[in-house]
Amino acid sequence: MKGHIHILGICGTFMGGIALLARELGYRVTGSDANVYPPMSTQLEAAGIELREGYAPEHLQPAPDCVVVGNALSRGNPAVEHLLDAGLPYTSGPQWLAEHVLAGKWVLAVSGTHGKTTTSSLLAWILEYAGMAPGFLIGGVPADFGLSARAGSTDFFVVEADEYDTAFFDKRSKFVHYRPRTLVINNLEYDHADIFPDLAAIQRQFHHLVRTVPGSGLVVHPAAVAAVDETLAMGCWTPCETIALQDGTERDSDAGWRAQLVAPDGSEFDVRDPAGDTQRVSWSHCGAHNVANALAAMAAARHVGVPVAVAAAALERFRGVKRRLELLGTVSGVAVYDDFAHHPTAIATTLEGLRARGANGRLIALIEPRSNTMRMGEHRARLADATAAADGVYWYQPRGLDWSLADVVAQSPVPAQLGDSIDGLVEMVAAQAREGDQVVIMSNGGFGGIHGKLLTALEGRA
């Protein structure tokens, strides 16, 4: 054993990934969290990691060799106060990752407001399919791997590069620790209103990230996106390649990598690389946003030597990511999906992608505004229009939300209903759903177990 590390906040997706990597590398790993429950708890326990509920100081006795502190922990937390008073060695998850896993690796980092998890999963899978056996740490569970992190057996490592802050003692974005050689910037919008006052503050952090990419590296980004271009204009010392969906605008004509939709829903598209060669991709996924994610992953993979044709073949076998438009089941002809969308742009693109599939039934959205930014009401003016591609929407008014969704419902371009009870919403949707309908449940949390409750209600109706 290399030593004993204890992780505070271990059941978060990122910190859980750190735990899996540390265990794989030979550390004894224990951890504490306020919410120890499946699926992360079972995944960690199966890896031989001891979990403890809550943040009691005795969890740090006898003292571990190092405490890795998650960014959900703050001053006043009993475990944090104990480790400071006792003078225990401590670090953040991103810093531990940088020092113990990423050092000496060719890091491929995927950043941006939207699509990080899907693009990271696509990139890791392309490298795996190409025989490059990468390590990875992803904020979700790619179906092709069945776990969110592994060390890998080569020098390539794919990391989902989050702009959220690092820890209570390090307010820089997580991604500044990763030192990528290949960097993807998917997009850039205002988010994380709990820590960033405005878009400019986020752009400054992305500028810090760009500063760490070597001149021999590569930055992949969308063409003609003002927020990204402004960030790169602060200073970029690395070659860039641009991507775009081909739509006849100046944006796509300037892009080095272009995708042309063959099927309206994005299930088939042509990729043109910077050399002018074209490759067709046919896959089981939908939405122009996912085509853009795929294009970014192909460009990043090409930087480490994966031919475009090999990347296209990998995409055709890509099985998706849990909670990214994941089909949970079809009951009495009603398809129920789980999606992580928690920003107006993500809500809109997900619904537009499903709409483009051209299903015969209705498209129904069931949405919980749960993220910190949503709860602060920063995006409420855009929420109603974000659901325009649906045939109907059900909004959940959770306890503790400081503003009412009533105005969103009143301004909705499609029929909308508001509920403050999970069971009440389940009853409404189950009563009105009919054969051929698609129901998309959108939340970045557990949504009170509504997914299973709706499936059960639909089965009871049969």
UniProtKB/TrEMBL annotation:
Single annotated GO MF: ATP binding
Cofactor(s) named in the record: Mg(2+)
Domain spans labelled Mur ligase N-terminal catalytic: 4-101
Reaction(s) catalysed (UniProt annotation): UDP-N-acetyl-alpha-D-muramate + L-alanyl-gamma-D-glutamyl-meso-2,6-diaminopimelate + ATP = UDP-N-acetyl-alpha-D-muramoyl-L-alanyl-gamma-D-glutamyl-meso-2,6-diaminopimelate + ADP + phosphate + H(+)
Keywords: ATP-binding, Cell cycle, Cell division, Cell shape, Cell wall biogenesis/degradation, Ligase, Magnesium, Nucleotide-binding, Peptidoglycan synthesis
Keyword Cell division set for record: yes
Residues binding ATP: 112-118
Coiled coil: none
Superkingdom assignment: Bacteria
Keyword Cell wall biogenesis/degradation recorded: yes
Pfam family, one: Mur_ligase_M
Limits of the Mur ligase central domain: 110-301
Pathway annotation: Cell wall biogenesis; peptidoglycan recycling
Catalytic EC class: ligase
Documented EC number(s): 6.3.2.45
The protein's role, per its UniProt record: Reutilizes the intact tripeptide L-alanyl-gamma-D-glutamyl-meso-diaminopimelate by linking it to UDP-N-acetylmuramate.
Name by which UniProt lists this protein: UDP-N-acetylmuramate--L-alanyl-gamma-D-glutamyl-meso-2,6-diaminoheptandioate ligase
Gene from which the chain derives: mpl
